[in-house]
Design brief:
This protein is an all-alpha fold. It is about 80% helix and about 0% strand. The chain is built from five helices and no strands. Helix 1 runs antiparallel to helix 2 and helix 4 packs antiparallel against helix 5. Bound molecules: fe (ii) ion (2 copies). The site of one fe (ii) ion (FE2) has 6 residues, from helix 2 and helix 5. InterPro entries: DUF892_YciF-like, Ferritin-like, Ferritin-like_SF, YciF. It holds the Pfam family DUF892. This is DUF892 family protein.
């Protein structure tokens, strides 16, 4: 055992979210396919694109910090996605499943939000402004996504269930 430094933690968190963003790209593609509401399909497809740009920004963060891009298995995101897959295997597409897709994406976006909040704080503590700006851009976009999802959940037509 050794004492973790701030740099160790930053690296760990960066590799964790880098892994998570890759998992989420595939997951949001599957959620688009498993959704029946046209707006929701378009929403997931758009966020697949956006997630791709988050991955590119993370590569830039690795470069800014002089590290080669590496992944660290993110069991938190994997767990949420495993639950989604299990429900999906047992239930047909339709309004209830659409709603569950929104709820699952809210969970994963909240995970991302927290991960990016802490990474922005750690980058700031390290005095790495370039990394901080890149991470903050990803944070802002995922917060926007989360707020769009929350609006969809709020305005969901429960009578259709
Ligand atoms: Fe993201
Ligand atoms: Fe996201």
């Amino acid at each position: 055992m050794s004492t973790a430094s701030l740099d160790d933690l930053f690296e760990h968190e960066l590799e964790d979210i880098y892994f998570a963003e890759h998992e989420l790209t595939a997951a949001y593609e599957q959620m688009a396919e498993a959704s029946t509401d046209e707006d929701l399909v378009a929403f997931f497809e758009a966020h697949v694109e956006e997630t791709g740009s988050h991955i590119e920004r993370l590569v830039d963060v690795f470069e800014a910090t002089g590290e080669a891009p590496q992944t660290e298995e993110c069991e938190g995101i994997e767990g949420l996605l495993t639950e989604w897959e299990e429900f999906t295997a047992d239930h047909d597409p339709g309004p209830v499943h659409d709603y569950y897709n929104v709820v699952t994406a809210m969970k994963t976006e909240r995970y991302e939000q927290t991960a990016y909040e802490s990474l922005v704080a750690l980058a700031s503590e390290r005095g790495d402004e370039e990394a901080m700006d890149l991470l903050k851009t990803n944070l802002d976009e995922d917060e926007e996504t989360l707020s769009d999802l929350a609006e969809m959940a709020r305005s969901f037509d429960y009578d259709s269930l």
